[in-house]
């Protein structure tokens, strides 16, 4: 009754440890701050006139989210932490070699020397190893010695950054970049038209199901953001988050509900600057060194949700910055990408 | 207000991917099966007269738990999956060199060539790379393409193996073995008597907080088990599990409640064979390549729980197989280890 | 800052204690049984060739759900328990007087002398006082002395009946009937067209938000069912139920999500016989003796859900038995009734 | 297999609708306010120098909790809402007749004409009918038309008052008083010594399992409080509350765990004034007009919890105001009553 298959695998690359920090651009810095600090319960650790650095209570780093005043919403620098100083050098050399490198910087708040580069679609990324560990001031110290910061009970109380979904005009190229240059493991894919049209790919450098996703930019843009995702420990926390968002007049685009792809329990809203933010739980860990990517075709994909909830058209059409024009290519009958 | 510290780290070893399978010995095989299959909701994938192989619905491997008929309860073979064939060879050579190696086998059900060895305390372990991926028969196929098996809704519905806690007469030696020979990262420790008495250490080869713990065997035994732990996705699942266990006459030793160490949400019961089993959720992932172990002394440790619940004396005194005699060394004022 | 208003109220009627039992008609008795027993986890307490009597683990009565083989799905007898023998006589006399009475019977399984009647729309109802208290056999006895039956851990594990929603061609008339003849308290209403078009009304004889709802039969039928609702204690149980239903091939029409009206956390599926069944939690208790009904107009009503989830057209168009023909009156822009 | 028993019942009294408001005395008014407002998330609706009036977000009345500065902690006035003006007069006359009446007042904040009286143990109570309905100011208006106030997301976010447990030197007398004079239905009892020693009784005027409990005052005091209990909708909310309390240095006496009696999911802490407060969910509704009280003897009672958690000695010995002296009568082997 049990059908068996044997796994084989080459030696995996292990140079990137995790997603370190994401910079969101916002034309409404103060309102965006209200969303992340007062509603989602994040802490502000540093402020300037044009930017704010924040963190979730469970993040061990000094800061994991940067909000920057900008004319349009979107994603700024995306920072990945290397597994060692040597790993940082190896990745910098490899990126330099393929022509995606930009160069070294001293690092943004909380991070040491960083190598900046671009992904093929034009998103700005960097790799670093040295990181400031967060040490809480008196009022924010946790009663738990293994928790970097007090759980304050304010608003949603997101624990940590989970992942990032980027729009890309050519998903396949960017996916291969992340696999080969960054060493990410491919976890799931949505591929339409008999395997010819790669709609989305979900990848990770660690056990978290995905820390980076590329999904098709149906408007043919470049360097755009689909969403940024923050973790809470239980599905009940996501339900409670929905109440808090609605009570505060925040528009909910979709959820809470459960994706089929990733099995993630999702809640999508737009922060006041316009960026799509997900509050997220569930999903599953991947520990297999030779994980076989799960691929979904049109029929298997269905609505992109598990229980049948429909995702709105905006979920495919809208990204930040928002750009004019209809979908370039006749969008396949993709109800959604995840 | 923000105090900073810079992290540094050598290149980490990355040869073990995850805990693969645990063998529990039971003098009551049929009753133990009832516990794991009917109450915890695991599936039986293979049977012989003297053994049964089981799995959680979310495990990707063919089997993750083996129950073996034996005169006394306890832990049998503990199998770790390597990250690659080369990693397997490297670990085998290293273990052979320090004299802990036993030799190669063809592997138990579902696994290929395996290298057997002992830890310093005498527990039987093995490393392997080749693994049978589970492929569900018709009635057990999930509606989710990325879920190896249907969630049946029977009983607790544990998702997967989480970790194993072993008793050891000399925690420090066994902890160093796991760090140096297996490459596990040390996550937390309980150390009493001004740093001189290592009561427990929690380690992992991946992002899961701990997949292996060594805690002091207060009776001076060898090769004994403290508990085997199975994961559910939400704390609510643990609460529901407690109802199911009590309704079926299973003795609950402690919980549901929350540890301070590991932040795990725990529920301990004894399966009918006598082994302590934990149903577990919560805790936190560790992604830092240079994680600084969190160390708890007597005062910080308190009762070992976060909200103040007491753990019973049995939690320190009882392991499997049970052995006669009082605590060898005057047990320190340790209320519990986790 | 606090605006105040004084409440006044006449003496409320208190003759009906609660919804006692609901009979569902099904053309697929065995498959319906599979749904309620194997998936929802109810117990069968009595069987004949053409009917089965079931119960939730928390129901104190012998049976609260009857499944009857019939050519078409729909709702059969709806039984209400009186608060006393005298209350039963009072209600029977009042119903007789207005011409809705049918007559006395000896009562169906588990109930004593019952007075049968019709509501204005033609649904069959009855009132009774004498009721068989459930006493569990050995294998179904709970470890909790105050729980009538063991929580078995099978499937969803619904606790008890919550409420019933009936379609009615004239909501206002049937609502007044329930208020005046049965003494139910009106809790919420959806009224469109500047108060002229009563789309739905939610009522109860006790603290449960509603045990009876009348919603507009857009096809102009009579005696039809919108849905029957079963309670679970936590929202997490509803999420888990959705997984169980999908894993077993049951179509989910809507949810899990949260209604604005009633604040109920809902999950709608069709049992194999065709009847819409809700798995339900949340909502709120009403204890005010002079509760002021909450009324929603088109704009306030929105999608009928709290977080923005859309309800499908079938939620308005489909009831059991299903009947031909389009909506009689041009259905107002009602996305849904609750 | 089904054993049956027939229920009979006299006409039940129905003059009290629900627990309306509880006054807690505190020697630390500002700190108590911090606990209820900042940690538990209640709103302050009125302030004077020596008192504050609060409410849960789901309470329909203007205020349900009054905090009053006093030399010692304890319970002040306990207000019950009548089901009608006539019911109020009936209860006042009955209480006057048995000599427990004190007299009429104009009512405290938010309530109209009130009849004050004492229970046999000396607790101060009152009955009223007229009540100010809460109408939220702009910033506190809910997006839900049927929710009196916004769910703010601050701290625990208790929804409403649930119940009150009073200490009494003679439980049986006070229990009969509540049954006969107030018309409460007896739900559960703990009776030791072969039925001769009534340790605790749980009662209610509505479907909530209990709104009033009397438990033995083992120190022989009078008019003392065991605990005041506030409701949250899900067990997960109680777990989250425990984190919030510990992170803010509040001592947790017991829980979160599940009682056997009432099936309540409990969390007990002391507010800074010294009164024991419970955060509560779960339990079960009672709708039977002829409910048969569930009685527990010593053996059935066990530890008073369902999963085996022990309750501390303080749970029996401590009430407010705290009084000197040991237990008067040799306390029976009662682990707890709550």
UniProtKB/TrEMBL annotation, chains A, B, C, D:
Molecular function terms from GO: dioxygenase activity
Gene3D superfamilies: 2,3-Dihydroxybiphenyl 1,2-Dioxygenase, domain 1 (3.10.180.10)
Superkingdom classification of source: Bacteria
Domain VOC: 18-130, 160-282
Keywords: Dioxygenase, Oxidoreductase
The protein, known as: Catechol 2,3-dioxygenase
Originating organism: Reyranella soli
């Amino acid at each position: 009754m049990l059908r068996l298959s044997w796994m084989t695998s080459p030696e995996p690359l292990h140079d990137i440890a995790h997603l370190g920090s994401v910079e969101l651009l916002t034309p409404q810095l103060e309102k965006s701050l209200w969303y992340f600090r007062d509603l989602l319960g994040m802490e502000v650790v540093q402020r300037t006139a044009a930017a704010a650095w924040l963190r979730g209570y469970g993040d061990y780093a000094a800061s994991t989210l940067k909000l920057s005043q900008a004319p349009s919403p979107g994603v700024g620098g995306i920072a990945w932490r290397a597994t060692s100083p040597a790993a940082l050098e190896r990745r910098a050399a490899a990126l330099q070699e393929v022509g995606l490198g930009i160069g070294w910087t001293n690092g943004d708040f909380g991070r040491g020397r960083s190598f900046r580069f671009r992904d093929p679609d034009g998103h700005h990324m960097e790799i670093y190893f040295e990181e400031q560990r967060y040490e809480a001031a008196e009022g924010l110290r946790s009663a738990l010695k293994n928790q970097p910061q007090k759980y304050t009970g304010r608003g949603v109380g997101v624990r940590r950054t989970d992942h990032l979904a980027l729009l890309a005009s050519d998903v396949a190229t960017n996916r291969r970049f992340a696999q080969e240059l960054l060493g990410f493991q491919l976890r799931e894919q949505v591929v339409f038209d008999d395997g010819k049209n790669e709609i989305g790919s979900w990848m990770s450098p660690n056990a978290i199901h995905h820390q980076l996703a590329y999904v098709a930019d149906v408007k043919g843009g470049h360097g755009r953001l689909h969403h940024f995702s923050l973790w809470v420990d239980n599905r009940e926390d996501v339900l409670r988050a929905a109440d808090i968002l609605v009570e505060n007049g925040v528009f909910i685009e979709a959820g809470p509900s459960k994706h089929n792809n990733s099995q993630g329990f999702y809640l999508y809203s737009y922060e006041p600057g316009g960026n799509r933010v997900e509050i997220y739980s569930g999903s599953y860990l991947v520990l297999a060194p030779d994980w076989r990517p799960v691929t979904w075709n049109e029929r298997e994909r269905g609505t992109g949700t598990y229980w049948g909830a429909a995702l709105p058209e905006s979920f495919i059409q809208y990204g930040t910055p928002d750009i004019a024009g209809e979908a370039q290519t006749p969008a396949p009958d993709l109800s959604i990408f995840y």
